[in-house]
Amino acid sequence: MHCTVYNSRNPDMPASSIRLQRVACALVGLLYLLPTVMSATDWSAPAEQLAHKIVAVTGPGAVSLEFTNRSSLAKTDFEEVRRQVLTHAAALGLRFVKADQAAATVQVSVSENIASYVWVAEIHLGNNESSVVMISLPHPETANISRESAPLTIHKTLLWAQEDRILDAAVLEGSPAHLVVLDPDRATLYRFQDSRWQMEQALPIKHSRPWPRDLRGRLFVRKDHLFDAYLPGVYCQSTITAPLGLNCRDSDDPWPLGSEQNSLNAFFSPARNFFTGALTPGIGKQTTAPAFYSAAALPREKYTLWLLATVSGQVHLLDGVTDQTAGRLGWGSDLASVHTGCGSGWQILATRSGDVSADSVRAFEMADREPAPVSQALDFDGSITALWADSGGSGAMVVSHNSESGKYEAYRLTLTCGQ
Amino acid sequence: MRRIVLPLLVASSLVWAAVSSAATRPRYGGTLHVAIRAAPASLDPADPVQANSTAAQNISRLVFDTLVILDDRGQAQPALASSWQSEPGGQRWQFMLRTGVKFHNGSAFTPDTVAASLRASNPTWKVFPATDSVIIECDAAVPDFPAELALPRNAIAKRDGNKLFGTGPFAIADWQPGKKLTLTSRDEYWGGRPFVDSIEIEMGKSLREQMISLDLGKADLVEVAPEQAHRAAAEGRQVESSAPVELMALVFSRERQSPEDGKPREALALSLDRSSLNTVLLQGGGELAGSLLPNWLTGYAFLFPTGPDLPRARELRDEAQQVPIWTLGYDPTDPVARVVAERISLNARDAGLKLQLSAANSADVRLVRIVLPSLNARVALTGVAAGLGLTPPKFTGNSVSDLYAAESTLIQSQRVIPLLHIRSSYALSAIVKDWGQDPDALWRLPEVWLGTEKP
Q1: Residues of B in contact with A134 (CB under 8 A)
Q2: What's the pLDDT tens digit per position in A336-347?
Q3: A6 part of a folded domain
Q4: I need a surface site. Which of A230, B69, B79, B447 has the fewest CB within 10 A?
Q5: CATH number, domain containing residue A75
Q6: Is A255 inside a domain boundary?
Q7: Which has the closest alpha carbon to A206: A164, A245, A165?
Q8: B398 interface with A at CB cutoff 8 Å
């Protein structure tokens, strides 16, 4: 047996990143350049193929050639297709004249189906004969990279995009910098080299139970080894030495919430998409809370205020003694806190609730127990499927499912104040 | 500056909060109430009655899995088979089976049960169980065999006497044939537990009864006739429509006997005002069809003309030595079929042709509706041809040109006159979240979750 016909899709799109502050400027430049490079689809080969098919019917000579766009192809791309077909047809001996002077009229339609572009040429010869020739070519992988938008205080930087769901991503400082991307099947390690992330190693994640729907997972960068990965019912720890390994085992160990500065762990339901509410070591005397999707810490002078986005849709505020319910905030189910040093020092990042086709993230201050917005909402081209605080607490990782490209995109969010 | 910005931010925050109320992350739990018009007497995927019923296929996918599924581009992806390979020539295929899967009764998912299931739905196939795979031998090369296995009739079922067990995301809790089906979510489903706890499907409900159930809050998901979709939406209901996935066509009961025999058939085809059928009778619920497969599936359907040409139709009628009086059969249970048949009869009369309407099964020409059987265009064309009783299409290669040639041959046979491609429409209650359909209009209910608050 051979001729294997199914292989898992491998992400091969070059991605770009900034490596924290030091490499930010260079890579942002790269991010601006990439869309230009990647949109330059080469239409020459299929255009030549269609031109050959047309000339095989008409023979060299005078023809009239018209084009119609029946596809989702952008006008600029359509014009390029038209130019390429005309160029190749001319090279094969066609001369372009008006219909009343032509030996043949050719109507080229750029159409498409769910999998491919379909370019069709309807050819009418002078002797009332008609024929149709066509070619198909797969839709190119769309490289829809969002440029940095113009928020006042929240900055997003695209780290990685791929077809498979991204659960979390983390940048590992070092020389060279590394990026870990966690998806349902593996943690993939990329090395920053030649101005792009290049795959270094894929570490499979073994699990005995089926993953729940709306699968979630978290990477946590460690000091004594590279990172831990937490998934429902599974805990994975990377090895210390190269080549890197990932030891996974079935485990109901609690996941870390927040960042290193705010040490709190919570048990995650192995067959659902939420934390059960059991906390360890607890917030002060509080070791249980309503089941929740996410949590964010706001350190105060004498205690830490924790905000929990609960499964019921409410936000609970736990300070170690009391459990208050905030009013209707319009927040979604994902929260994270970021340490900026500005204002009260810590801000909450919250997703917007409701319409999942286009989500946004916004920053809030909690002066007392009432949130006040301190940024404009930062929009994403799709629903946000993950929001986790950086292990270091200086930023957050957002994963968005781009509704146009269908890809999952991991962004690092940072806040700058006073802008 | 700061004094100005902060109030603006607060004001926009209020808007931010007001436009939304539900959490964005999916919520587990609840019962989804569904009402449908169909009243299937069997859930067996091998039951041939299921082939042309979207409702039956939707139900089948909740309980049963196939070895392969097709993605939104019509490409085969692993399901109960984790991978596959073929020998050169494409007659012998090996499908490696996913491990850790169990049937709803707790029995193991084994090559033997898979082989038995596939033999039941395809008696002519040679299916051999191997250690961790099944091997299937076909009589001829089938390049699209994985797509063939994705058809609902090839879903894997374990038959134990009168009982049927699947491996799908929902298990049968209660089954009253033709009346009601209750399904419960499976925690151990290999593809992840569905969000809802259970689904209750009421069957045999008229479209009017369904809409009343929706309005009374007794149903969360109901069918809407394509001609009613606009109105239902205008009245404030949440209506979701698919791409055009159902072919409405005229099918002659017998082959064309001679080129002369084809002239009145061509005259009938040229007399049809498809645009009126769509805009007036179906209220824009479809698209004009000159081809069997819709353009979104092939990319070339626009090549088949759809406009009427009455002068040419009359010429052909005059050229024909014999102009028969045809009987036109239609499904009397289909609310829109009779009015469409009447309009077709009027169009034909304008060209000098006579059609007599008949609700009987036997007729010279039948008005039929057939759902697109697959997202793979070649498998779909083969399935549509089989469903209409046409000669199976012959493909000389794998290119889009070969597909076009095969479909053109079917149209040129003059056994069938495509009329419209019709959308499927559903109305949803406000608590239904993340509703989605495949491009061929099949439900994605395992992804649906129920909000607790109405917006």
Answers
A1: 300, 400-401, 404
A2: 998 877 777 788
A3: no
A4: B447
A5: 3.40.50.10610
A6: yes
A7: A245
A8: no
